[in-house]
Amino acid sequence: MTLLAVWLGKLTLLGLRLIGRRGNALPGLVVEKVFPRFLARAMARLPEGVVVVTGTNGKTTTTKMVATVLDEGLRVLTNDTGSNFVRGAITATIENASWSGRLPYDVAVFELDEAWAVRFVGLVAPRRCLLLNVMRDQLDRFGEIDTTAGLLGKVAAATTGHVVLNRDDERVAALAARTRAEVSYYGVSAELREMFPNDEELYGGPVHVSDLPATVELRTLPSPAHPAATLRIGGRDHDVLLRAEGPHNAQNACGAAALALSFGFDQARVLAGLAKVSPAFGRGQTFTVDGRRVVLQLVKNPAGFRQTLRTLDARTPEAVVIAINDDYADGRDVSWLWDVDFTALGPLPSRRYTAGTRAADMAVRLRYDEVDVDEIEVDLEKAVRSAVGAVQAGEHVVVFSTYTAMWALHAVLQRIGQAVQ
Fold this sequence. Notes:
Blueprint: H1 2-18, H2 26-34, H3 38-43, E1 50-54, H4 59-70, E2 76-78, H5 86-96, E3 107-111, H6 114-123, E4 128-131, H7 139-142, H8 145-158, E5 162-166, H9 170-173, E6 182-188, H10 199-202, E7 216-220, E8 229-233, E9 236-240, H11 247-261, H12 267-275, E10 283-289, E11 292-298, H13 302-309, E12 319-323, E13 351-355, H14 359-368, E14 375-377, H15 380-390, E15 396-401, H16 403-416, E16 418-419
Parallel strand pairs: 1-3, 1-4, 2-3, 4-5, 5-6, 6-7, 11-15, 12-13, 12-15, 13-14
Antiparallel strand pairs: 7-8, 8-9, 10-11, 10-16
Helix pairs in contact: 1-2, 2-5, 4-11, 4-12, 6-8, 11-12
């Protein structure tokens, strides 16, 4: 049955590629319908089992960090395209299996959407999980954040070996009571805590400083004077140069490091792996277009957008594009944009563009923060071409985009430019 499932999935994937489709989900969906037990049987063959990474923000980049670090000593299977439903995990498994049905890996590291993670763990009990945070995101799908925390609690309860929790998110830290697995924590120092608000703090609540012990703690953030992040592991501080920019990615690195340590990896191997991690798909990826540097940043909720805006602290771009779509995968309700503080964009000397199906709405939102917009353009490619054409060679454009806009813009930037490795 496994061999038939692999052939069915691979032939479906091949057909999609022949017609120019990505095929990140459909092969998995087909196999899931025809062979519903395929995933459980395939994962049972992995000596180190499955790692699940889930939470509101940071799943894709953190999963890439975990997979890269573990690859220092293990053969790692992962769904690195960001297709984070069960069908995405099945597609990744099918694609990486041989035509003989062999799966030559030691461990699987899967990013999973919060709701689909519950379905996944109903099929496959993870050996380890990393639970990141709980924020208001896609209210039309998840409802209030206590519902999302409940979903993560089911993942923790299903995990058999080791659970890594973000101690600075009280809802996540409380999930230690929901699991019989071993538990460890990661977090940031008290001095940095205010820069990483949980949901209540984001809306004006008092900052909570946890006294739970952190296996890995973020001590300092990268700065122009000191470009390395400082992580405290085992009572000692270590500097690591992270290629994935932004404070949120330094925090993600702590979670990834804590997870890798649960495998028995030594500190040197963990730090070496973190230093190799390039930005994940659409999350700070850089392209060159006609001699201009274009950075693509995914945004999808207030907390994530606020953190991603902080990447502008390191360098002021000559142009900023904010591309907002409202397709199902983005969340149809875009009222969350009113919970993002855009005032920092006002003083920037950058040209500003809004794009996507909600380009006009985004321009109105910016106006309320007294941020002027130079151009409103629904067409994503036209907006990016206009921004690139308005700056000089060697200058810098940042594009903030929601999920479906990010996929479209990634294709555009690959076609008109070149990815920077």
